[in-house]
Each structure stands twice: as structure tokens, then as C-alpha cells.
Design brief:
With about 350 residues, the chain is α/β, with parallel strands linked by helices. About 40% of the residues lie in helices and about 20% in strands. The strands form 3 sheets. The chain has an 8-stranded parallel β-barrel with strand order 3-4-5-6-7-8-9-10, surrounded by 6 helices.
Length: about 350
């Protein structure tokens, strides 16, 4: 995958900074989806570190009020993963966020009012990159009128909106910018990113906004992101799902691996399950996915349910587990490793996985 030429921007500081742009590896990010209190900080920090182990390189938080600013400030001291503040409407909240150890701030100039310059200059002074978010759902009034009354295409209106903001940042000498232009339409998302990629070297964050629930959202995101990434467009991605951050990260990992099969990581093969099943592959797979995606080795793991295809697929994998009546069989590199009762499947799989990691 050959990426377009873009400026390098560092998200975060010191050894934990994530480089995007300038042909750095495409960075995966997700967004925290729930409100949180001070009592939740250690639990959230542990989950963020787990997401990081799975391949997520930054986590974005909605910051609607001063209380959330304080919580995000405390959370940033508990994690090494770069945290991004997402602020809408209230420029004072944006300015306050810039006094905390956040790694990046995301704002939509269309709803931050006449204070974009103040926020942008403070971010620049603090060495904090800005992600400028342009969304189809929040176009400036004059551009929306052009779309509604004058026949301007939505993609051209979005590009014009982005160019306005980039021109202002250039005039104010704001160097560290990331740009995202998103729409819920696949065609518009692809078209607008192709157009803006020809007009700027600013790093691009790409994704389909409000992509939908798990299956629909992954499908739509995969089509749009694969198309753009295959053309070298995109420096950081988020798969936006009505689902967990973990599944957003897994989907993003799989999309990137489809574009670039040389990437490291575990390939999981699992059966869909049927009436022959004696081993609940669904719950077993769901339980083990975060751990499997945290492994840095390049290997194939098969999780199968019965004797029809199970032993064959398990033998072909680097590590395989398959149901067989009231037992499970474990294979490593094509050879039967052990047979245990189903209630010992997790323990046996953990031990086999540890052994696999040492030999790869």
C-alpha cells in the first residue's frame, strides 16, 4: 500500500507519541462511548490499555462540560495512550482542554462560533494538534443553501468547507492539523476524500460517520475504507459503530490487513456453528478475541465446533481447537496436542496459546 504524500504530525509527546502522515503506518483510533465518573478512572484506564494492546493507538472522548475536562485530565495521568478531546459548541471548554495533557483536540469550526482562531492559536502554542472535523450533518448555512437551492454537490460543499478552514489555519500559521471530512453516504465519503486528497498535504482521518450497528457498520466502513486506503488515501482511521470500542478496533485491524496482508497479528478462523455443534464456538471466540488481537505474532488460530470440518481446519492452523462430542481437541502446527473435556477448554487453550507464542 503506497500512501499519498502528507505532512507528518505527532499525536502525543515523548516515547508515547503516535506519528501520522508522511507514510507512517495508518493509525487506528476509537471513541469512548459512555459517561464516566472519577470512580471509573482506573477501570477505564485498564480498558484503554487493553484497547491499545489490540492495536488502538488513540482514544477520543466527548467533552461536553467542565466536569468532563477535569476527569479527562486525571485519566490522562493513568494511561500512556494518547487521548483526544472532542469539543463542540463551547469554545471555553476547548480552551480549558488545552490546559490538560491531552494529545489532540477535535473541533468542528462550523459549530465553535467565531472563536476558532483563539482555540487554534492556543493549541499551536501548546504543541497540541487540531483535528478539524467537517461533517455532512453540520455544514455552514451558506453552503447548505448552495446544496439545497443551487445544485452544488454535497461532496463539493464539504471540500469547500474544508478549504475555508485550512486557509484560515495557514493564515494563522497553525502547523499541526489533521483533517476529517465525513458523511454517512459511502459514495460521498469516498468522493470527498478523493477530492481533498488532491488539494492538500494535511494528514487525513477517514471513516464513515454514523456507519450503523455492527454488521451494517462494518460492511459500509470496509467498502469505503478499503477503497480509499487502496488508493493511498488515509493516515488514521476509525470504524464508527453502534457497538463496542473493541469491535471498532478489530474491524479496523481487519480492514488494514486486507489492504496490506503483510501486517502482523493473529488471523482468526471460526465456524458459524450449526446443529452438530457440541462446543459453543460463539461465546468462546468472543471471550478470546481481545487476547488474540493483542498478540504481536503472525499466526492463524482456528476455533471450530464439530468433527465435520473442525479437525481439518484446526490442523491447517498454527493453533486449532475443535469440539468433538463432550471433548475438545487442540492442534498445534497440524499435530494433535491434547484432548480435554469442554469445561477445561479455556485452560488448555491458554496453555497452548502461550506455547505457540514462544515458538513463533
Amino acid at each position: 500500500m503506497v500512501q499519498r504524500k502528507s505532512r507528518r504530525t505527532l499525536i502525543g509527546k515523548n516515547t508515547h507519541a503516535v506519528a501520522i502522515g508522511d507514510q507512517a503506518p495508518v493509525a487506528i483510533q476509537t471513541m469512548w462511548k459512555e459517561p464516566f465518573a472519577e470512580s471509573d478512572i482506573k477501570t477505564i484506564a485498564a480498558r484503554i490499555q487493553s484497547l491499545n494492546a489490540m492495536g488502538c493507538e488513540m482514544v477520543r472522548f466527548a467533552v461536553p462540560d467542565e466536569d468532563t475536562v477535569l476527569l479527562l485530565e486525571k485519566l490522562a495521568t493513568h494511561v500512556s495512550v494518547p487521548l483526544v478531546a472532542d469539543v463542540h459548541f463551547d469554545y471555553k471548554i476547548a480552551l480549558r482542554c488545552l490546559d490538560t495533557p491531552i494529545a489532540k483536540i477535535r473541533i468542528n469550526p462550523g459549530n465553535i462560533g467565531n472563536h476558532f482562531e483563539e482555540v487554534a492559536k492556543k493549541a499551536s502554542d501548546r504543541g497540541i494538534p487540531i483535528r478539524i472535523g467537517i461533517n455532512a450533518g453540520s455544514l455552514a448555512h451558506d453552503l447548505q443553501q448552495k446544496v439545497d437551492s443551487l445544485g452544488l454537490s454535497l461532496s463539493d460543499a464539504l471540500v469547500e468547507a474544508a478549504e475555508r478552514e485550512l486557509e484560515q489555519c495557514e493564515r494563522w500559521n497553525i502547523p499541526s492539523i489533521v483533517l476529517s471530512i465525513k458523511a454517512s453516504s459511502l459514495d460521498t465519503t469516498i468522493e470527498v476524500n478523493r477530492k481533498i486528497a488532491q488539494k492538500t498535504t494535511v494528514p487525513l482521518h477517514i471513516g464513515v460517520t454514523e456507519a450503523g450497528p455492527l454488521i451494517a457498520g462494518v460492511t459500509r466502513s470496509a467498502i469505503a475504507l478499503y477503497t480509499l486506503l487502496s488508493e493511498g488515501i488515509g493516515d488514521t482511521i476509525r470504524v464508527s459503530l453502534s457497538d463496542s470500542p473493541e469491535n471498532e478496533v478489530i474491524a479496523a485491524r481487519e480492514i488494514l490487513r486486507t489492504v496490506d496482508p503483510s501486517q502482523h497479528g493473529i488471523t482468526v478462523i471460526s465456524c458459524p456453528r450449526c446443529g452438530r455443534n457440541s462446543f459453543d464456538t460463539h461465546s468462546f471466540t468472543e471471550k478470546w478475541l481481545p487476547i488474540l488481537y493483542s498478540l504481536k505474532t503472525k499466526a492463524t488460530v482456528a476455533i471450530m465446533g464439530c468433527m465435520v470440518n473442525g479437525p481439518g481446519e484446526a490442523r491447517h492452523a498454527d493453533l486449532g481447537i475443535t469440539g468433538a462430542g463432550n471433548k475438545v481437541l487442540l492442534f498445534r502446527h497440524g499435530k494433535l496436542l491434547r484432548t480435554v473435556s469442554i469445561d477445561l477448554a479455556d485452560i488448555a487453550f491458554s496453555e497452548a496459546l502461550s506455547l505457540l507464542s514462544k515458538t513463533l
